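User: Round two. Same drill as before: sequence, then structure, for each protein.

Assistant: Same drill it is. First protein:
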Amino acid sequence: MDVGTISIVLVLGLLFLLGIGMPLGFASAILAALVMIMKFEPTLLTDPASFGTGLLTSNPGTGPLYLLTQKIFDLMTEYVLISVPLFIFMAALLERSGIAKQMYDSLDFWLSRARGGVAIVTSIMAVLMAAMSGIIGGEVVLLGLIALPQMLRLGYNQNLAIGTICASGSLGTMIPPSIVLIIYGLITETSIKALFTGAFIPGFMLASFIMIYIIVRTQLDPSQAPLPEPREGDPEGGEKLLMFGGFVSVVATGIMAVLIAWTAFLTVMGRNDPNVEGFEAPLVGMTSDLPWLIGIAVIALAFIFLVAGRQRTASGWEHGKGLVPPLLVIGIVLGSIYGGVTGITEAAGMGAVAVFLIAVFRGEASVDLLWVSMMRTLRSTGTIIWVTIGAATLAGAYTLAGGPTYIAQLIIGADMPSMLVILTMMVILLFMGAFMDWVGIVLLIIPVFLPIVKRLPIDEIGFIGTLSPQHVAVWFGVLFCMNMQVSFLSPPFGPAAFYLKSVAPAHISLTDIFRGFLPFIGVQLVALAVLLIWPTIVTLLL
């Protein structure tokens, strides 16, 4: 059977099976079997009693079936895949412990008196949680439990509160260590470290766009975010600023002390000597870094003792210490990756252990905490793995049938400008994202789209700057993640809506939630447009 007919059957079959509610993993596996039969043994369809010609039925360990099973085996035995349950376990511990609540209280103390401050606090908290675990669903649920009641109690506009929580809570898609980037890197054989680095600026750009939108919206219409009543004993103006400066100085001093100790360790071990064969410079840790590390520490100490004073600094620390555990976890996870200490998987394990030890130190560790966190990890990982197996099977079968080559020739044969080709892909990804889980999309669509993008003239991609050929896969991966960021809010199946609905007050309906999304979807599309217009923003740190 020709690949064009197979493609039509595949699309219609996928829509039908998903439409009747079949899980994506099973739907993909069924269609994979159908594709293999249509391509390599169609007599199984026309004359089932014959059991075909034997290519699929008599020789299961050879031919196309062997290639397919080998592809799935290789994917499932990837070492980096172990990081997925570790990051999920870390997120579950954060959600169940009081670390996130204390972080919210600290941010709320510093920013609640600003117009729209509670919404901004929610966004900042989401960024910190995204940088710790890279999980999306747990963030939306946690913010819905902590921030939504607070904003509604203060009289915030309901749509603003809902949109802030869901748009910010899905930032784990973009901000490293994103599980979406990890799976994309595995499927496309792209450096995950390069993907993390490339996603840094776009991820924080999107977060800043959300915060700017909140500030502008609340300044134009103050009734959207009424200011809370002053709390007794709250410091005013300059006093609060000095307290915050003292807190920041303490944190800066601690960070500089750790980096100075790290540099000394590397120096003693000879690991920062550029004359050693195979030397790779660490992000921080060269002896040339010592002057500015010591300089920052001296400036921070001078601010504590000469400007803020010890009493203000102590008060600032008391109100801000809830931010220290999240910053510590972020430093361990991302610092170990970019400092060249460990790989992605080991960093995920270190982060999970760090969160558990913090819970122990805070007196929150218990058998129940571990059990509930492990059960949630098992359920979430199981869902991802089954979808991965099913979608990888379907993608492999379609590849063996010649599907990617057929689609590439179809698109390139249309003789469209390069940017129109990419825009068409974006529309397809946005449409698929409204109906399908991101795991299925990255496994089914990306293996078809990425080779086409790599064949486009490099100088025709974007309008500002020119990508290097080795960075095309990284840029397209970040672009894909920005698409998936939109898909988490896209009706009718935007998962963020259902996550929030599970913890929202009864009077908030799904229609209300989707209505609250709309302006934030526009903000996300603006960020997507920036990546299309200025693709080299992804490579600024590479």
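Second protein:
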Amino acid sequence: MEHLADLVDLYEYRVEDLLSGRTPKGGKGALLKLRAFLAQARLPGPLAKRFRQADARYRALRQREAAPPPPPELPTLEAVPLEPPKGEESPLKALALKVWRLLTEREVRVRAKELLAGRREELRLVHAFLQNFLEYKEKPEFKRDFNLSRFAPTHPIPSLSDTLVDLDDPKVAEALLLEFLETALHLPQHLPLPPEETRPYLRRFLMRILEWDGAYGLPPKRDLLALRRALEEARHLGATEAEIARLEERLKREAQEERRRELLLEEERGRFRVAMEKVLALLALLPTPQGDTPWPRVPEVGVVEENLATLPLRPGRVQIGPLVLTLAQAEGAWHLGLGGEDRVLEDTLILPFEDLEVFAVREGEVVHLRLEARSGLRLYELLSEGRVLALLLDPERDYAHLRLLRALSARLKGEFRPEAFGPALAEKYRQAPPEALQDFARKGLELTLKRLGPQDPAPFLLEVGEALGLKGEAEALAGALKDYLGRRPPTRETLGGEVHLLALTPEPQALRVGQTVLSLRLKEDAVYVGQAGEIPRKVADLLVYRTGEGTLVLAREGRRVAYLVLP
């Protein structure tokens, strides 16, 4: 608290220096860094009020300085391609990796919360893996031991009550998962393995830990053979009945304890095998070809798109979607401005603005900017659901995917009869209004996923697909459901990349699906979309709008709309 109070005092002094025409100590760059720190800090009420008052004086000074005579306008950064110097690699790969890390941190934050429940087997297993891997990596046999035949684990799985690990702390859990993913990401740099072999190698490593009896903190295996030999020797030497009975009782007791230990060991192994599959599922977050996540799209240097831009680092204005950003340099440091606020841009930066976030990543003299929905926003989740609904509402083969979903739901309930889900069912779907059919499909999806729980939908779908003669459609629906369930929260890349963001305005806005132009209108608090000559359809929170040239998936939350076009 005293530290923050001192920093607020310092900020007030520096602002007063500026108001008096003096250069503050450390220059304007030091003032901007201090301002950025205090803006992000959780200041208590009285300190926050003092900071706001001092900051208001600083902003007023900036506005007066910006008044007549006006300073020269910052140029708008244009799309001028920039070639990297000869002998140097393009910075695009490094920028894409930094964006991937920012998006992965979002996802890991969600996954870590889920893994903090119960006995936290997944987190404990990750901890044991990291300890064993870091130790084995330093040994000379590591480099060529692809099958891990020479690997012997030395670090057990920590117990649930281990105070040194502190696995009930969300920050510790996040750090563990991020370190696990970074270790997997860099595995091909330590071993001459193709990237596609990352998952099998880690599976072998985790299995070696689980096969080790000492991994679970149980008592050591009892030496029953020695007791049996002692008993046989006592009988051979003619020991008294009391001595023989004592040895027999001890052998019986030790055998019971050993059976109890074996049962407990198998139970622990079973639980951690389930945990291992969840840990390996995290590897889907790795970029392809190591994982299933597409590399973030980074345009060429000098290219400005609707929601993405990659630019040489120089002062100017950049239009990203509905936002105007400014790049400026002061006291040797680069700053990114949005809405009158400047933040120091060093390596990576996230600027929140209402329900959006601006990602800024820097690599040398190049900066990549991208507009994303905020991590807590439902727009991307709605679009992810809309992609599945677009498949379910496809009328091909008599609404094959919607019939398969209903058949899957019945199979999970134990009431599946193939004849109840034949092509005749599609006639009801054709006669239903589009809004009613979408609501029906949406409720069916929710109910089916609730019945499915954590199970893999593929085996059940292939079973009902065989019965209905729709094997190919069953495989497609299984893949779509797997993507939908495994991408929480989804990102621009996992949604297909072409996500568009709009702010609703009273004026109509045009949306293009192929050659078809649709009109999006805000009327009072309702939103309607449609094309000329048709009755507009109302957008609640999600709408799947089919045309002859593609499908529009449109999601709304408040006054923000996101949409994507599916072929």
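The two ends are 56 Å apart (CA to CA).

User: Perfect.
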